[in-house]
């Protein structure tokens, strides 16, 4: 197959980790007889510097007309004080909205090889962590109207959280369909004891659930979910939630695996256009350009890209297996090498590697 991929390298470590991911995609193309054609588009701080906006309309059009979009990471201290209307994050929200990427899938998996890195007790971790957060991505408080106005001599700020039945239903269906392909358990997370938008959420999800009798589902309040994630993460398979709750819970979930440098994500639409694939970590400006960043989350995002946008399951599995093999063989970038004695042991074994070498190792295992 011939496929066009738009590449948003972004800022900080973005370009380095995307380079490694493209090396891996090229190896897959060679091995399985495909052709991947890449088109670069500036996004984030690099685009602000070049064009004065975090992504151009032409850039958005290029994303829309490609078969898939791969993103590194955007932002950095250099652009922290730019006008809020052109912040790097704005570009991300714009791409999500313009490409109608309403379903954000964030698999959160504890790699057994890295279990020591989890901040949770071994007695908790030994039950495993393998959950998938399905976060609604184009609605809710992120896209509601907002304003800051002066009322009676003081500033008053408002952000509205709005959901329609149709918006809830379509993300609900994605979550139940996803659960069918996993362990068939789903927790729908809301704040129905307080919010109207959550009460509607719950009502619509209950309706959708009727079409999926094979899936065991429950409703859970978001504060309780935050607690359960650290108390007993093994109870979760698919976690369905709205935009802002998903933002917060997915950071918490990533942290309990101890290796944020390993986690991939996919943002999907209705299947008529490309998806967006990115590591869940940020642009790490402090280590940018030093060949220290872990490229595995971006490489694993490519596996999701192949699976969801191109239907290339065998190719996706090949990448995931190669990454497992690299970990099994003891290779580590700094972020997953542990501390103290663990780190010394990795170093002594000569297995502490940089970004490029990590990319090469995945290719060797392929
Ligand atoms: C994320 C990020 C973004 C979000 C920011 C950068 C706007 O935190 O993808 O989780 O809040 O959605
Ligand atoms: Mg976030």
Question: Count of helices?
Answer: 13
Structural class: alpha/beta
Overall strand count = 12
Strand percentage lies at 15-25%
Attached small molecules: 3-isopropylmalic acid, magnesium ion
Spatial gap, N to C terminus: 19 Å
Features:
single chain; 366 residues; alpha/beta; ten-stranded mixed β-sheet; globular; binds 3-isopropylmalic acid
Topology:
Elements: E1 2-10, H1 14-32, E2 35-40, H2 45-51, H3 57-64, E3 68-73, H4 88-98, E4 103-109, H5 122-125, E5 130-136, E6 146-151, E7 154-159, H6 165-180, E8 185-190, H7 196-209, E9 216-221, H8 222-231, E10 238-241, H9 243-257, E11 264-268, E12 276-279, H10 296-310, H11 313-328, H12 340-348, H13 355-365
Helix pairs in contact: 1-10, 1-13, 6-7, 8-9, 10-11, 11-13
Characterization of this structure:
The chain is α/β, with parallel strands linked by helices and 366 residues long. The chain is globular and about 60 Å long. It has a ten-stranded mixed sheet, sandwiched between helices. Strands 6-7 form a two-stranded antiparallel ribbon. The chain has helices spanning 14-32, 45-51, 57-64, 88-98, 122-125, 165-180, 196-209, 222-231, 243-257, 296-310, 313-328, 340-348, 355-365; strands at 2-10, 35-40, 68-73, 103-109, 130-136, 146-151, 154-159, 185-190, 216-221, 238-241, 264-268, 276-279. The model has no long low-confidence stretch (mean pLDDT 97). Helix 6 (165-180) packs across helix 7 and helix 11 crosses helix 13 (355-365). The chain has 13 helices and twelve strands. Bound molecules: 3-isopropylmalic acid (IPM) and magnesium ion.
